[in-house]
Amino acid sequence: MDDNNQPTVAVIGASDDPEKFSNKSQRAHAAIGYEVYPVNPKGGEIEGRTVYKSIDEVPVGPLDRVTMYVRPEVGVTLLEAIAKKGCGELWLNPGTDSPELIAKAQELGLVPVVACSLVDCRKRGA
Questions:
Q1: How many beta carbons lie within 10 A of that of residue 49, not counting itself?
Q2: pTM over 0.85
Q3: Which of 17, 41, 58, 111 has the maximal Cβ count within 10 Å?
Q4: Domains and CATH numbers, the chain
């Protein structure tokens, strides 16, 4: 958690399209009290939040949660940076996991959760 005890989440593959699950996830995490850090190499802004071009640019760390919305072959290339930043939970949403990605995450000391973080947020009241 950051200095004000608010939990933190980085949304990897963040989108400004309200129909995309990565966009819905940003809103759902914010609704249950997370400080949301969108990450997308395009940068810019989504719903008033700065979009960071990489996890390295996120101004806090370690993060409580990192939730992925990218293909497994992209996600596997991001794991070392995520491990370096630090995160309590690495959520691999449907379509983002692979045996290789899970094995590498575990090898790096990350705790992969193969489930939908959006569903988790909804269970918590979002």
A1: 16
A2: yes
A3: 58
A4: 8-123 (3.40.50.720)
